[in-house]
Design a protein that fits this description.
This protein is α+β, with helices and mostly antiparallel strands and 361 residues long. The chain has 3 domains: 62 residues, Molybdopterin biosynthesis moea protein, domain 2; 235 residues, Orthogonal Bundle (Hypothetical protein af1432); 54 residues. The protein is 48% helix and 10% strand. The protein contains 14 helices and 9 strands. The strands form 3 sheets. A 5-stranded antiparallel beta sheet has the order 8-7-6-5-9, with no helix packed on it. Strands 1-4 form a two-stranded antiparallel ribbon. A two-stranded antiparallel sheet has the order 2-3. Helix 6 packs antiparallel against helix 7, helix 7 packs across helix 11 and helix 7 packs across helix 12. The mean pLDDT is 85.
């Protein structure tokens, strides 16, 4: 690991240490493969230098590659990359009006044989979070949401058939955005006004209209695409539906969609940790979101976080050792580098001033 000035950074270099803003929010995570977009962001933030991985770091990584868990991660990432290529081709066909039986059958095959198996992987939450690419398109977002929706369906003990339907719905949830022009796709939602906002809010209806051309896609999947931005309290769009008038598949896709938006690196947004997502869902699951969907997600994500290294806003590194039984509880952290005889565990529930700012640093 060595420091490199902003003037000497090149695309393809890999960050060795995470970068934080003044609020101790991670701007770029360690392990990020730098792109031109990243370099522009760093200049905008007035960053003078960053730490870059070197050959010694790579040697340590190669030693790790012999572990079975590492090989599983590589297999997951390869499957993910292949699925991205498939979904881009499928979306282009569907947006061009080709919603025939062959296209639908091909879509279902990708879902069944590529996406669903990724959803069944118990480490999928970790693998998705560790992907550091600056992805900001419909295709990458759709596959990530499909994987998370599949995880939720599994955690809700849905049948294999229903799980496939949920994953298919999530896979296609943003198909209506293929009607957006490039200018609209590149804008932050919070910045949309007037006709642009109306156009954005119609993408569920547009997606529903596209899928209505096919008899080979179930009504359940079509309704999930139409309703994935509806909210339990009626504040969603496009039809302001409430509670159980929203299809269950749509309620699952809504949660998966929000989880990915919070934890993924996208142009114009700061990537946040799964802990930030957990905090968000704790606040929203009795308002706009379905608690019957949120509780399984919160419970199982907490299970997957056990034993994981974390970085606190104090700069201390620790490891999650357990959670209290309360679903709303914060973790207990075992801190590194604490002298013998001093308390090394800290309960974040008793110390609200402490926050996890990075996961798997």
């Amino acid at each position: 690991m060595h420091a490199v000035s902003i003037d000497h950074l090149q695309p393809g270099m890999i960050l060795a240490r995470s970068l934080f803003n003044d609020d101790l929010v991670v701007v770029l995570s360690a392990g990020t493969v730098l792109t031109h977009a990243h370099l522009i962001r760093l200049r905008f933030l007035n960053v003078d230098q960053v730490f870059i991985r070197d050959e010694a770091d790579r040697a340590a990584e190669k030693a790790q590659e012999e572990f079975p868990s590492f090989k599983k991660k590589i297999a997951f990432q390869q499957n993910y990359e292949e699925s991205k290529k498939e979904i881009e081709e499928i979306f282009k066909d569907i947006s061009a009006g080709k919603v025939d039986k062959d296209t639908v059958d091909r879509t279902k095959l990708v879902v069944r044989h590529e996406v669903v198996p990724m959803s069944k992987n118990s480490a999928a939450v970790d693998y998705l979070y560790e992907m550091k690419n600056l992805d900001n398109d419909i295709y990458t977002h759709s596959i990530r949401v499909a994987i998370v929706a599949g995880l939720i369906a599994k955690w809700m003990y849905m049948s294999p058939r229903v799980m496939r339907e949920v994953v298919l719905a999530a896979f296609l949830h943003d198909i209506g955005k293929t009607k957006f022009d490039a200018r609209l796709r590149g804008k932050k939602i919070e910045m949309l006004k007037g006709d642009d906002l109306k156009k954005y809010q119609m993408h569920p209806q547009d997606g529903y209209g596209i899928l209505m051309k096919s008899r080979d896609i179930s009504t359940d999947v079509k309704l999930a695409v139409l309703q994935h931005h509806e909210r339990m309290d009626g504040t969603g769009f496009p039809n302001h539906r409430k509670a159980n008038t929203i299809h269950l598949y749509a309620r699952i896709v809504a949660v998966a969609d929000l989880y990915d938006n919070i934890t993924s690196e996208r142009q114009g947004y700061v990537k946040q940790t799964p802990f930030a997502a957990v905090e968000f869902f704790k606040q929203e699951m009795y308002r706009g979101l379905d608690p019957n969907v949120c509780v399984p997600l919160l419970t199982r994500i907490r299970d997957s976080l056990l034993g994981s290294p974390v970085l606190l806003n104090t700069g201390q590194i620790g490891r999650i050792v357990y959670f209290a039984k309360d679903i709303l509880a914060q973790p207990v952290i075992e801190l590194e580098g604490i002298p013998e005889g001093y308390e090394s565990t800290v309960d974040l529930n008793q110390h609200p001033e402490l926050q996890v700012v990075e996961y798997n640093p």
